[in-house]
Protein: Carbon-monoxide dehydrogenase medium subunit
Amino acid sequence: MSIVLPNFSYHRPVTLSDALALHGGSDDAMFIAGGHTLLPVMKAGLAAPDTLIDLRAIPDLQGIDIADGLLRIGGGATHVAVSKSETVRTAIPVLAALAGSIGDVQVRNRGTIGGSVANNDPAADYPSAVLALDATVVTDRRSIAAGDYFTGLYATALEPGEIVTALTFPIPASAGYAKFRNPASRYAMAAVFVSRLGDGSIRVAVTGAGNEGVFRWAEAEEALARDFSAQALDGAALDPDSLIGDIHASTAYRANLVRVMARRAVQNQGKASIFS
Structure:
């Protein structure tokens, strides 16, 4: 079966101002970076923009560095760039490991951290890191705290035409990530990011399982604040009704899987454990 995409104009600006001007001058423009969400949606006929604006050639969206005690990653940084960055590996090693676990080599070489966070796919990896590390999403207009950014399934606080230019991460005392992925798609069926921040607070973020997308697991945070050990999570439980149930796993199965991944994330502070 052949797939015919609707006609559209394609632009590859080299400055942020040009990208924004192109968007403002079109009736139905969309930004594209890696294209791993947008192109399948277009192929399915669920989106038909008249203009595609490729953000990959804009230098201002690149770069990874440490500034004012924060790890800054440009929104256009690819997953492979994050995974191989010595700056990331030194500051937050588990974030580099998480990036290296995304998809396959083709996905990692084209997909970007900004695109992933902007689309907020319920099974994406980065949103759990952003939420658990209390990161800030920086756009061309403002800075948005992680707790205010994710608003639901495929939904964020971004306004039309707003571009994720960078993400800044406080450097935690420690952090760990564990993911159980679908062996075919490699998306997370359930994944948990656990961090201990510099102020001593514990944050636990779950992706791949919530029917409203990424979320913090308050009961697990409270248990780990009392005793930071895998055993502390033995009595923690999630309401299955709040989780995704599909052909791959029931809600009850995912509830148990989340607890198992949380335990692994606590046990593996400083790295990512991937299961499928």
Notes: The mean pLDDT is 94. The chain has eleven helices and 15 strands. The domain at 61-170 is CATH 3.30.465.10 (Uridine Diphospho-n-acetylenolpyruvylglucosamine Reductase; domain 3).
